[in-house]
Amino acid sequence: MGKHLIILDTNVLLELYRQPANISLDVINAIKEIQSNIYLPNQVYNEYKKNYKKICGDAKKKYEKVTKELSTSLRNLQGNIATKIGEYRRHNYTDICELQKDLDEKIREAQNIIIDFETNHNIEIQ
């Protein structure tokens, strides 16, 4: 069976930055196995060099967006809850302070989940 020549285009290379790290690494390892059959046109290389930093920045920003938006949502939720709890206190609801304490604890747990998500994906971001 004869050898086949594989010609990559810029989008194939840039897509590696858009995929989760484990998928990108699998593709890179597959490419390494057949690298002698791969041809990379000069135009593709130049386009890649021109665009990869922007694509890398976009990939990093998508994770920053997740953590920022979810953290903001939790802060807003916590503020809304605090406002409602204040109203309930004025009306002497039973155990309202305990309810607020329990809700604040769950919100802190949710904030820690977001922080853990960001920490666990730092490798992928890099």
Question: Domains counted in the coordinates: how many?
Answer: 1
Number of helices: 5
Euclidean distance between termini CA atoms: 40 Å
| Overall pLDDT confidence | 88
Q: Outline, from the CA principal axes?
A: rod-shaped
Broad structural category = mainly alpha
Spans of at least 5 consecutive residues with low confidence: none
Percentage of β-strand residues? under 5%
Number of DSSP E strands:
2
| Fraction of helical residues | over 70%
What Rg, in angstroms, do the CA atoms define? 24 Å
Strand order of the largest sheet: 1-2
Largest sheet: 2 strands, parallel
Keywords:
about 130 residues; 2 strands; about 80% helix; rod-shaped; two-stranded parallel sheet
Characterise this structure.
With 126 residues, the protein is mainly α. The protein has one domain (6-125). The protein has helices at 10-18, 21-33, 42-90, 96-120, 122-125, and strands at 6-7, 38-39. It has a two-stranded parallel ribbon with strand order 1-2. The chain is rod-shaped. The relative contact order is 0.10.
Short description:
This protein has 5 helices and 2 strands; from the N terminus they run βααβααα. With 126 residues, it is mainly alpha-helical. The protein has a two-stranded parallel sheet.
Which helices and strands, and how do they pair?
Layout: E1 6-7, H1 10-18, H2 21-33, E2 38-39, H3 42-90, H4 96-120, H5 122-125
Parallel strand pairs: 1-2
